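LAB NOTEBOOK - FOLDING QUEUE
OPERATOR: T.R.
BATCH SIZE: 2
PURPOSE: Compare the predicted structure-token outputs for two unrelated chains run back to back under identical settings.
PRIORITY: normal
REVIEWER: second-year student, initials M.K.

ITEM 1
FIELD SEQUENCE / FIELD STRUCTURE:
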Amino acid sequence: MRRREFLALGSAAAVPQAANSQAKQPVKLGIDLFSIRSSNYSPFEYLDYCAKWKANVVHFSEVRFLGSLDPAHVKKVSDYARKLNIELEIGMSSICPSSTRFRAEDGTAEEQLSRVIEAARVAGSPLVRAYLGTMEDRKSPIGIEGHIENTARVLRNVKTRAVDADVKIAIENHAGDMQGRELKMLIEEAGKDFVGACIDSGNPLWTIEDPHVTLETLAPFGLTSHVRDSAVWKTPNGAIVRWVRTGEGNVEIDEWIRKYAELCPGKACTMEVIVTGPREFPYLQPDFWDGYRNVPAWQFSRFLALVEKGKQVEGPAPASPEQRAQREREDLEASTRYVQELLGMAA
């Protein structure tokens, strides 16, 4: 891709508006099992737990939560979910062969993605969630643009398999790897007829992006979501970001969720609740910008506005492994109740 084309994606005029002529439908309540990863449940125990919280969708964001890609096992999990009136979404990790997160020992990216596409077909999942990498990839020699090209190539190579399985690929803006405009570029490079977005509300802050900008950019491509609240505030070096329970942050998450429900009707509003300690983004130090040279000023100013009005929020106390599992469930449950009340869902 040419540099001029890449930069054009960051202009305010390039931000698309979601067009939907059909009647709006409420979003579905989803739970991403990464929220309670320390519980180490079986897939059937995960489904039972989510059923108690009246989840419409259970998002198996990693293969480890499913337990196995063996078709007989996947069908057994799918049949159990159907009895609970739960829809499944299947996911995996990095599909970018040049990312630090890619596991080459598991086969080529095409091989790994093809296996999960087949599992999604068996499970009745309409999508496979995957991602590029992390913020570390932004400072690699090929830059995030090179990783985007490599990921788009992998996606094009599996297009026929995905289309034949009637499965779309939902790429997440993950762990600070891509801003919304960059994921939009990846989707369009790969083919928006079979590739869309898993829109994460917490990860934009790890790319110094206002999550509302991310949503505005990616809503037309939205297939599913990861919903998480955040707190951000100013420091002498830049800003600190913390992920918090839903409703305890300062990024106007209520507005974000309502906007997602309006722009992505019928999709899953999926709780991926991760409560963390502080992470600093020292953008006042020159070397920080090595991975962000192409960030448009108008976009960064939206992030700065959040920083300027943000207030410090205290983090969680240290926890043992046993305490961690319990705390994850408590964080998820409090956040789920909050969103159910916000959207008028039956608790």
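ITEM 2
FIELD SEQUENCE / FIELD STRUCTURE:
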Amino acid sequence: MREIDLKYVQQKVKEAFIEANYNLNPDVRNALKQAFQNETEQKAKEVLQALIENYQIAEQGVFPLCQDTGVAVIFCELGQQISFINGSLNQCLQDAVKQAYQEGYLRKSMVDFPLYERINTKDNCPAIIHYELKDGSDLKITVMPKGGGSENMSKLAMLKPADGEQGVIDLVLSHIKEIAGNPCPPIIVGIGIGGNFESCALLAKKSLLTEIDHINDDPILAQLEDKLFKLINETGIGPMGLGGKSTCLKVSIKTLPCHIASLPVAINVECHAHRYKTILI
């Protein structure tokens, strides 16, 4: 049994949230630069250049990538041979978020009583934490500050099995055209197919954690991702919705088995400020 001190975990998770809000991952940086090189519309190139300059300024550590520093989403993969000391894991992660948003001067965006008073919790908690048990004694934590603007542009639909691949393509394309520039493109599109109502949505969010240059291990899904990527960029929505062919940086699909009568499809949209960090403890 491996013993892990939660004080150490708290420090590392705090640092990861601050880092994620100030430093864009290399794969996203490279994708923005590639989109700039490939873009032919002058206005779109100007927008992409501004986004590149934005992340270069943010990495100096004075201003975060975006004023919306997001809902604190945490994916926690727990080895079953771990014993924690100095507290509870859940409280440790919540405290890490509180400290990160205070010490990193990050905007606190969470409100309580969402339908009525909508009172700011003033510490960006509660964080949304997803736990998954694994074999072994490793602890893998991925932090994801998820902006509200792009999250609002997500969708879940319960298709009929007979709708098949074309039904998924039609759903994704019609939705992307409908939301247009609202999620601050160029966007990353995470798609979950299968499972049921709730697992499909989680699958779509997990899809966003796929590196942009990663090719799906399933050749059929890789082909569908590529097809959707090209079709989305052919919509002409462009960076920030101002026109051009750089609407999307990545389409990523994950699937689960599902009921014979179902075909759940979830679309989780991410903006160009695609922020997440993974730590191994």
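REVIEWER COMMENT (ITEM 2): The radius of gyration is 19 Å.
FOLLOW-UP: none requested
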